[in-house]
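Archive entry. Fields below.
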Amino acid sequence: MGIVVVGLSHKTAPIEVREKLNFPENTLPDSLRKLMEYEGIRESLIVSTCNRVEIYASVQDSAQGIDRIKQFISEYHGLPREALEQSLYVYPDAQGVRHTFRVASSLDSLVLGEAQILGQLKDAFDIALKTKTTSTILNKLIKKAISVAKRVRTETRLAEGAVSISSAAVELAKKIFGDLNGKNVMLLGAGEMAELAAQHLLGNGVKNIMVANRTFERAEELAKEFKGDAIRFEHFPDALLMVDILICATGAAHYVVKRDMVSRALKERRNKPIFMIDISNPRNIDPEVDKIDNVYLYDIDDLQSKVNVNTEGRAKEAEKAEEIVTQEVETYLQWERALDAVPTIVDLREKVEDVRKRELEKALGSLNGISEDQKRAVDLMSQSIVNKLLHAPLVVLKLAASSPDSGDNTIAIARRLFNLDKELKRPGHKKAVEPDTAAIPDESRESKSKCR
Amino acid sequence: MNLLFFQVATGAYLAAAAGYISYMFKPDKKWVSRASLWATVAGFLCHIAYFSVRWHEAGRIPITNFFEAANFLGMGIIFVFLVMEFRFKIAALGSFMLPLVVILMVPVLILSGDIKELNPVLKSGWLGVHTSLAVLGDAAFAFACIVSIMYLIQERQLKAKHLGAIFHRLPSLDIMDTLSYKALTLGWPLFTLGMITGSIWANSAWGSYWSWDPKETWSLITWVIYLVLLHLRTIGWRGRKMAFLSIVGFVFVLVSFFVISRVNMGKHTF
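PREDICTED_STRUCTURE:
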């Protein structure tokens, strides 16, 4: 019985391969059910995002499980196994636990510390829960992974500081305005970068976007996309009166936004601050503008250097996060060992009780004419012999369950010594634990990303 | 026994100040900021206890000399801080407010806390009204000043494009600008009322509303500065210049409080 993770990510496979092995969300329940038909797969969960495709499973035997999962991937996608081998990684048992925690904590992400992956993991878990392909082991694993991720988030600064140009712009905007709700944004020029930044701002509460472009049609097109207004390029200096955030990327070879223009606008808007982002090359906003009070001008280099600082900061925090993961893996394994010990103890008790009853019947059958009191005495004697003999092994098993030593194989030895696996095969030992989804807060659920 | 409350209060504020400052540098330790907040609350309760006991012992509101006024000012600042902290949850405020209060309290600790007999001329209901209004006005100005300092730090960093560790802890410029303005619109009317009631009191005690006592003159200057400041705000000044002016205004308050009251020979000398 163990956990295995089989999958591929941006680290092992290019996007072309990841696309081919993707499991679309709407057919995920089907995929899960198909996977469950493979021998030895007890529980399963599929995480499929732009950056990773991973199968988490609890299996009877790790090596066999890995083999079956690979088989499943190959058959499901109709690809030969040899073609998969080189992009797939495999994490059995303790490594699997560690990998799960690292993924949830965003230590394995392309952008360290990004929050989306946790939401994606929760979504995948939700689907698996609904399809009823998870049970005790995976439920525990994923819930633990979510709590580890939370711990990493609160105890380290892994997710702190923007690490992309547009999120850096949003972060700065928030430092100036606080709430971006109700702020007016103007896109000057309609480049891709400007669009990306605008999208980010929209995702952070901005409602009104104006677009000004040399070709008015393009402005209208983009305005439609953002449900904003298009304005004629000549009119933009007047519109500055209303603008709180200006994103400039016109592609002009000279300064488009000049100091006196901004001074005038600021006077008219009674010095309400303006945040200007110049992402054009060459620059379109006269750097002199930055000298005006209540105007904050950032060009692409300013934003990039902020991003660089933050990226380095995250790498440093990742070390702390790895330590937390290591600790948590240990606690998890301890729980798992305890879980292994319980059925062993039950099996052992049942087997011994079985033997006792059988032998007792035989004995009582050959002892004719003894009284009820005497019968009870014999019964009691057999019970106490059994209990006395079992006492030491049970204590040792319970100890092994809570032992921090992961190499402890007491349980396996006990099963062998008492021959528990061959004779006493009783199905239905696994208690189905009711999945408790209510315990999973959904703060990062909204971040259902589409690969762009 | 009585002074013990005061010492405990000061100690609690000192601990809170240290906690808040260390929280600025180690923001992953949330409990530090929470503990600091509770230390402040505990300190404030002791402070109130001290104030009440002293009031009872003196048989009059204890805002009659420098020791008592400074003590009351500290209490007022903490009160304003707690209201703002519970309302806006800006832990960074504590890192600036608490040290100010500690600075204010420590010299008070050194001074004699003896209860002195009050000049019978001054015994009047106006005593409490005038002094508490004036000091509460000062507390609001102190808050505005602190927030303005925070504003200037953040503004400086944004302009310089150098975003230090402190940057992530400070609230947005907009909030700080609003908070400082709110504090001013609260402080100025209080201060004005303090001056009016003081004048009425002066009339009943000395028979004249205004006598160009140095403290009066200085307070008038301070009052005008804040008036100008509020006016400039309504015609569209904001941001850095306002923050700067607010700090200048508070410097006048401090001078009035610590210098004018102690060196001149007028009736405000204590």
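CURATOR_NOTE: Residues 125-160 of chain B form the longest helix (36 residues).
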